[in-house]
Design goal:
With 388 residues, the protein is an alpha+beta fold. The protein contains 11 helices and 18 strands.
Length: 388
Amino acid sequence: MTDTLKTGTSGATGGAGLPRSTPEALGLDSARLDQICALIERHIAEGLYPGAQVAVARHGRLALFRSFGQARLAPEPVAAGDETLWLLYSQTKMIVAAAVWQLVEQGALSFSDRVGDHVPEFARHGKGEVTVHQLLSHQGGFPSSQLPMAVWADHDRLRRTVCDFTLEWTPGSRVHYHPAAAHAAAAVLIEAVTGRDYRAVIREELLDPLGLVDLRVGVPPELHDRCAHMHESEGGRQIPLVETNTPEHFAAGRPSGGGYATAAAMAAFYQMLAAGGALNGVRVLSPRMVAYATRNQTEERVDGAMGMAMHRGLGPHVRGETAAIRGLGAIASPRTFGHGGAGSSYSWADPDSGLSFSYLTNARLEDPFHSRRLDLVSNLVHSALVEP
C-alpha cells in the first residue's frame, strides 16, 4: 500500500488539482477512513482484484489518497502507485456530459434541441425527435446499440455508426440505461457543434483549465505505461481483459467508457461539481448549470436496465430518498450524485457536505458482491463525516 497523505505538506497533488490536508482538519474521522483502506486491503488479499486506488476530498482539499496492490500482473507485475491511471469505464460518461453542459452554457445548443438539429443524419431510423435532454438522461430509445472497435480511431465512422442506430421505443417513454450508445452520440454532437475532436474539446475546455492532467479521455502514448490493466475473475484467477489493455484502447478515449484517471483526479473533478462548477478559483460551469444537470430528471421511474429508480440527472444519477440505490451509499444525503464503472469503480459528490469520493479498481466483479461492496465503501465515507 502506498500512502500519499502526508501531514503538513501543501500544494497540489500531482495531476489532481487539490492541496492536501488531514481528515481531522476537514471534519472527517480518520479511523473511519482507515476502515476503508483495511477493507480494500482485505479484498486484495482475498484475490478479488489485483489493485485499487481511493481518494476522499472535502472543501477543496484532499483528505485521503492511497494506492493498493498491483496495477498490472503481466508480463511482469507492476505495483500500483500515485501516478497509476485506472480505467473509468462508464464513469467517463460524466466527463463527456459535462462537456455538453459547457456547450449549453455557451449558447451553442440547448437541452431541448433535437440531436438531429445539429447532426442531421442522426434523424434516420426514427430518431428525429430525440432531444439532448433525453440523450443524457438515458431516455433516447436505443439502449441496445453498440459500436465496433473500428470507430475508436475513425471518427467519421463513429458518426456514421451513431447515425445508423435504430430506435427501439419512443424517445422519452422509458428510462433505460444506454451503456454504449448515448454518450457516443453525445461525442458526435460535441464534434458537430465545435468542429473539433471531442477529446480535444474535453481536454482544452474542461480538464486543462482545472489542472486535471491525471484525468484523461484519450491517453497520449507517453503516458501509456501508467495505465493499469483491467481484469476479471475466473476460477479464482485474475484474467487480463485483452481488448482494454492495449495502446489502441488507452488512446481511444471511448466516450461511453474509455477514460483513465487517478482517484485523486476524480475526487477533484467531483469537488468542482460539489462546489458548483469551480475548483481552486477556476470556474468551468455555473452553479445553476451544475444544480440543474445533477438534479433528478426522471423522478421515481424505474430504469429498465437496473430494475430500480435511478433518479437520472443529465449525466449522473442521484441518491434521492428510495430505500436502495446503486453505488452512492444507502446513508448518503439525498442530493449525492455520481456514476460508476462496469463492476469496478464509483465516484460521487455530496453537495450538502462538500464531500467527494473516488474508488477505482482493476477487475470487473459481478453482482450481488459488486453492489454490496460499493455500499460498504461509500457508507464508510459518509459515516466519516463528523463535522458540518
